[in-house]
Design brief:
heterodimer; A: alpha/beta; Rossmann fold; two-stranded antiparallel sheet; 12 helices; globular; B: alpha/beta; 2 domains; 7-stranded mixed sheet; 5-stranded mixed sheet; 14 strands; binds thiamine diphosphate; binds magnesium ion
Chain lengths: 332, 323
């Protein structure tokens, strides 16, 4: 289902697609806030990493690649899955550990999979999925299927050996991958400035002669445009590209994070750049959306998220016998 | 029947797989231009070209991860990790990705790939190059572990590994590469989970895998001199494990010795002993004995290295103590 028509640059996007970008960001925000609520109600357990504040990165980038381009990401993965179009109710059901979840209750929040949508998973070993991205890209290259890989990870991943191994191999084999670092300045409670010799992450790609760029991750249109350009280059067979999205998570690392390591003022400053508020303002100024339309979209999203919770809540637990299935792929 | 070396049996099989399926690719350090550290892939680059026989950087983790990804993406990769010692740098990829993706994705993803690696001590390479970690891999649900002993095993098990829809760790003891044996001419495969009774006997069962089968067979010769007929089992795969063959043999001999080069503490021989006790306790005339590598890093000096590895005499002594 490769799209036949090339995607237009942001300035040529028709109104309905601009509104769709806003809608997706709003859906992610509402979904995440609801997930937090469900966690406090103990409907959701385990680690829960929320994406609030970073919506523009997922929505901008994922809208700029094709629906059948492979997507791999880290454990903070709800936003990426929603941006790819994975059904909210099946994601919520996964967070609830239900049989109707995308991973049938085996993965939870950190391990969403929807292979039909080329959403190849959320991975919880920091940088552990970068090598997989290389392999999927190698297969795409060999099968000449015109698909590329978008591989998303955090700033914490860039000091892992696998980050360097993967970047090197991708360049040597000219693999069709966009490596995208979500630099939100913190890996759990550790400020990147305290642990990284080079804090401008995009510069690290230069060590491997890979085209790279820093992008404003609070600006959905900039994310869209830069990903689009990178995707064109990568799809043309010119090898991998690297994007560093500068962003900020508005909430703690996970639900159990009291945020002792950063000052409230820092978060407050970033909240003023809220990607949803600023984009709504832009669309209003440009006459693309008015208050009524915005409010009815909000109400619609409220319904979608409530329905996701209802679906998850009413879904059955995985049956006990499911414990032993899929450890191995059963022979045909 | 043709007589060929373990190494040639592997190469023949790889070549057949490459010819049979365009999606088969081989990746690894020095498998191409150099011809493979143990010459298993010699000549394949010349025949199949760089697109199929891919020399990689010395980056074990990304090489294995790339193989997993390639399998996810529709290719049929075989990754050669020069030796099991270096596989430790890829352990995360094997344990956290290869072994988990089918399960965590509820079967949406499968990882049909083969990871080959040389293993074992005995060549005076000292502690960092002499590991036998087969048992570590066998510990992990989600992967399968093949441990061939004969050239016939090498070919038949590798064939099955390429038919598998799951990740297979294929472990080759370095002492076996040059050893020759009969290999059937016709197409054949050895199913996983099917051990071989490589020597029949009635008095004691010696259970080994990979290189340790050789030591067990030596022990059987020694035991025969004192009139004890040992049965020797070549396990061929550790996961799945052919429990049935082990139990059938022990039910006949009532004595068992598990042999491996790896360390005894927490090792696979202990697993065999436990299974026998769980499933055939009443058949036993005495405790299951274990003869394993000494509980030390493997040293360089020949005399020390030999002392650290199970010998036929040690195995025979352990067996005799059961009578
Ligand atoms: C290999 C590994 N080491 C440590 C951890 C524990 N851990 C989980 S998330 C995390 C921080 C990662 O931060 P980053 O990559 O910046 O992503 P972010 O949470 O900011 O989105 C750490 C250290 C892990 N999951 N994997
Ligand atoms: Mg971070």
């Amino acid at each position: 289902m490769t799209q036949l028509i090339d995607k237009p640059p942001a300035k040529e996007l028709p109104s309905d697609q601009l509104i769709e970008l806003l809608r997706k960001m709003m859906l992610i925000r509402r979904f995440e806030t609801k997930a937090a609520e469900m966690y406090t109600k103990q409907k959701i357990a385990g680690f829960l990493h929320l994406y609030n504040g970073e919506e523009a990165v997922a929505v901008g980038a994922i809208s700029a690649v094709n629906d059948d381009d492979h997507l791999l990401t880290h454990y903070r993965d709800h936003g990426h899955a929603l941006a790819r179009g994975v059904e909210p109710e099946r994601i919520m059901a996964e967070l609830f550990g239900k049989d109707t979840g995308v991973s049938r209750g085996r993965g939870g929040s950190m391990h969403l999979f929807d292979v039909e949508k080329s959403f190849m998973g959320g991975y919880a070993i920091v940088a552990g999925h970068l090598p997989l991205a290389c392999g999927i890209a190698l297969a795409n290259q060999r099968l000449k299927n015109n698909r590329i890989v978008l591989c998303i990870f955090g700033d914490g991943a860039v000091n892992e050996g696998e980050f360097h191994e993967a970047l090197n191999l991708a360049v040597v084999w000219k693999l069709p991958i966009i490596f995208m670092c979500e630099n939100n300045f913190y890996g759990m409670g550790t400020d990147i400035r305290r642990v990284s010799a080079v804090i401008e992450v995009y510069k690290r790609a230069a060590a491997y002669a890979m085209p790279s760029k820093q992008v404003d991750g609070m600006n959905v249109l900039e994310m869209y445009d830069e990903t689009l350009k990178a995707a064109e280059r990568v799809r043309a067979g010119e090898g991998p590209s690297f994007l560093e999205a500068i962003c900020f998570r508005f909430r703690g690392h996970s639900m159990s994070d009291p945020e002792f390591y950063r000052r409230k003022e820092e978060t407050q400053r970033w909240r003023e750049l809220d990607p949803i508020i600023t984009f709504r303002e832009k669309l209003t100024k440009d006459g693309i959306i008015d208050d009524d339309a915005f409010r009815s979209m909000e109400a619609e999203i409220e319904d979608v998220v409530n329905e996701a919770v209802r679906f998850a809540d009413e879904s059955p637990d995985p049956p006990p016998e499911a414990l032993f299935t899929h450890v191995y792929k059963e022979d045909a | 029947m043709a007589e060929m070396s373990f190494r040639d049996a592997l190469r023949l099989t790889l070549r057949e797989e490459l010819l049979a399926d365009e999606k088969v690719i081989l990746m690894g350090e020095d498998i191409g231009a150099y011809g493979g550290s143990y010459s298993v892939t010699k000549g394949l680059l010349e025949e199949f070209g760089e697109e199929r026989i891919m020399d990689t950087p010395i980056s074990e983790s990304v090489v294995v991860g790339c193989g997993i990804g390639a399998a996810m993406g529709g290719l049929r990769p075989m990754v050669e990790l020069m030796t099991i010692n270096f596989s430790l740098l890829a352990f995360d990829q094997i344990v956290n990705n290869a072994a988990k993706l089918s399960y965590m994705s509820a079967g949406q993803i499968s990882v049909p790939m083969v990871i080959r690696m040389a293993s074992g001590a005995g060549s005076q390479l000292s502690s960092q190059h002499s590991h036998s970690l087969e048992g570590w891999y066998a510990h992990i649900p989600g992967i399968k572990v093949a441990v061939p002993y004969t050239p016939r095993d090498a070919r038949g098990l590798l064939k099955t590994a390429f038919d598998e829809q799951n990740p297979v760790i294929f472990i080759e003891h370095t002492a076996l590469y040059a050893r020759k044996g009969e290999v059937p001419d016709e197409d054949y495969a050895i199913p996983f989970g099917q051990a071989e009774v490589i020597r029949e006997g009635t008095d004691v069962t010696l259970i080994g895998y990979s290189g340790s089968v050789y030591q067990a067979l030596g022990a059987a010769d020694i035991l025969a001199e004192s009139g004890h007929q040992a049965e020797v089992i070549n396990l061929r795969t550790l996961r799945p494990l052919d429990v049935e063959t082990i139990i059938a043999s022990v039910s006949k001999t009532h004595r068992a010795v598990a042999v491996e080069d790896d360390w005894k503490f927490g090792g696979f021989a202990g697993e065999i002993a436990a299974i026998i006790m769980e499933e055939a306790f009443d058949e036993l005339d005495g405790p299951v004995a274990r003869v394993c590598g000494a509980d030390v890093p493997i040293p360089y000096a020949k005399a020390l290295e030999q002392a650290a590895l199970p010998s036929p005499q040690q195995i025979a002594d352990a067996a005799l103590a059961l009578f």
